[in-house]
Specification:
Blueprint lengths: L4 H10 L6 H11 L14 H12 L9 E4 L3 H14 L7 E4 L5 H9 L4 E4 L1 H9 L10 E4 L2 H6 L3 H9 L8
Parallel strand pairs: 1-3, 1-4, 2-3
Length: 172
């Protein structure tokens, strides 16, 4: 897959030795910039799949947000943030979880300081976009984790509104 050396170190450090079936099938198309819909059972490595793809594609020298990951719950968003930081440990990647329960001012301050990957719940992410604390102009990847759950749980309108604020050529 020709992954960056620091990313490989993060992958091995996280305990991965061989890619799972979903990782074998989805990482390369994601890295190539294709839109991908991936479905697999729990515990098969879906989070690592999109995280590895994001970390391979972002410009580590550019501090603006380049990837946005939406999750249906605060807990899942925090879990994803931990995976991004662990896999990107040797890359000096910045990641912030925009979730309810955090102080709005803390989110604004963190986003304005420059974060390469933002993971969050649709409500808080949309709020940060509306306040212009989260800038979408350099976001090149949008991930909807557990999209089926989010669409069932009534986030459909917020996801649509977020998508409308993304650059035209965004990868999903």
């Amino acid at each position: 897959m020709n992954l960056r050396e620091p990313l490989l170190r993060g992958i091995y450090g996280f305990g991965f030795e061989r890619p799972s079936a979903i990782q074998q099938r989805a990482i390369k198309p994601c890295i190539l910039g294709h839109d991908v819909i991936a479905q697999a059972q729990s515990g098969t490595g879906k989070t690592a799949t999109f995280t590895i793809s994001i970390l391979q594609r972002i410009d580590v020298n550019f501090k603006d947000c380049q990837a946005l990951i939406l999750a249906p719950t605060r807990e899942l968003a925090q879990q994803i943030q931990k995976v991004v930081l662990a896999l990107g440990d040797y890359m000096s990647v910045t990641c912030h979880a925009c979730i309810g329960g955090n102080k709005v001012q803390d989110d604004i301050k963190r986003l304005e300081s420059g974060v390469q990957v933002v993971v969050g719940t649709p409500g808080r992410v949309y709020d940060m976009l509306q306040r212009r604390a989260l800038q979408s102009k350099n976001i090149k990847m949008l991930v909807l984790d557990e999209a089926d759950e989010m669409l069932k749980e009534g986030f459909k309108e917020q996801i649509y509104n977020i998508f409308m604020l993304m650059p035209e050529n965004i990868q999903v």
